[in-house]
Design goal:
With 339 residues, this protein is of the alpha/beta class. The protein has one domain: Arginase, Chain A (3-Layer(aba) Sandwich). 35% of the residues lie in helices and 15% in strands. Strands 2-1-3-8-7-4-5-6 form an eight-stranded parallel sheet, with helices on both faces. Helix 8 crosses helix 9, helix 9 crosses helix 10 and helix 10 runs parallel beside helix 11.
């Protein structure tokens, strides 16, 4: 029996709640939300980098639920909304799988794939937990509709699809009847923005959306921005938290192998601190890690990007750069208790 296992037994005897150490991993090898090949291989390369083994070193109970498999619905695409049949089918199946992971008492870690998959992860989380707050870590706002998008790529639309206040901005979407927007835009906070379309800026201002760009992070620091965001969307510290992390939130020097890089982004150190602080809330139920594309850049570029992704995942699930920290009330116990 190792030291951490002994510690948990002591916590149980003292009736101290230990943070959920069960994780369910879902791979989503999906690239139909945008047009660059390769992002569907994200789950493959992150698993190959031994993410599961790395998480097990944190004494986590890790279950890999495998990759999402779906049959694309045969529907006509909506104008300026590419591959809707694939998006609708994949995200519907993903929503169901997220609900199953949460019912199993596990935190859900979803590895993509492009960012359109968050339609399914957040839908499933909201349906299962009800009151959910979302931290959207991204260089982009992903707030476009089919009428405002310049590309027609659905990975630039998920927040607009998920939030109830924007439901009237959409036409009827065949194949998406399963997804009724139930997330309030007041429960969403952006961190890391630096490439926001004109329409998206108008929506952010009209609805007073909590949005911290890189200028705010430079002014206040990532620690303060993280807590300001949490205080805005979860002021009573009661909501189930969901982090949807696009790897392009990082500066391209930190994560070059991604489809829509924007210079001037988060450092890896800032991203790790952000995830450490969210972990410390003890309310994080779901994490998305998306847009790693191993077909962009050199082998070294890919290695740097995948390594960054794993650092972010580890920080979200309990790795601390200070080592294992015991809960309040335990630190004054004699060392022989753990021997």
């Amino acid at each position: 029996m190792n030291a951490l296992t002994k510690t948990r037994i002591i916590f149980q005897k003292l009736n101290i709640r230990y943070y959920n150490d069960k994780v369910g991993i879902i791979g989503v090898p999906f690239d139909k939300g945008q047009k660059k090949e390769g992002v569907a291989r994200g789950p493959e390369v992150i698993r190959a980098a031994r993410v599961i083994e790395e998480l097990k070193t944190l004494e986590l109970d890790v279950r890999d639920y495998g990759d999402i498999v779906y049959d694309a619905k045969d529907i006509n695409d909506i104008s300026n909304m590419s591959e809707l049949g694939h998006v609708a089918s994949c995200t519907s199946r993903l929503s169901e799988q997220i609900r199953q992971v949460l019912r199993d008492g596990r935190q859900a870690l979803t590895i993509g794939g492009d960012h359109s998959l968050s339609i399914g992860t957040i839908d499933g989380h909201v349906k299962e937990k009800g009151d959910v707050a979302v931290i959207w870590v991204d260089a982009h706002a992903d707030l476009n509709t089919n009428k405002t998008s310049e590309s027609g790529n659905v990975h630039g639309m998920p927040v607009a699809l998920l939030t109830s206040e924007l439901a009237d901005y959409w036409p009827y979407l065949p194949g998406m009847d399963w997804q009724v927007p139930m997330l309030s835009i007041r429960n969403v906070a952006y961190i890391g923005l630096r490439s926001v379309d004109r329409y998206e800026r108008l929506v952010i201002e009209k609805f007073g959306i909590t949005a911290f760009g890189m200028e705010d992070i430079e002014r206040y620091g990532i620690h303060n921005v993280t807590h300001m965001a949490l205080n805005k969307i979860d002021s009573h510290n009661s909501k189930s938290l969901h982090v949807s992390f696009d790897i392009d939130a990082l500066d391209p020097l930190e994560a070059p192998s991604t489809g829509t890089p924007v210079r001037g982004g988060l450092s890896l150190r800032e991203a790790i601190h952000l995830m450490e602080e969210i972990y410390r809330t003890r309310r994080l139920s779901a994490i998305d890690l998306v847009e790693v594309n191993p077909q962009i850049g050199t082998k070294q570029n890919v290695e740097i990007t995948v390594e960054a992704a794993i650092h972010i995942i580890q920080a979200a699930l309990g790795y601390t750069r200070r080592g294992l920290k015991l809960p309040t009330g335990i630190t004054d116990m004699p060392l022989q208790t753990f021997q």
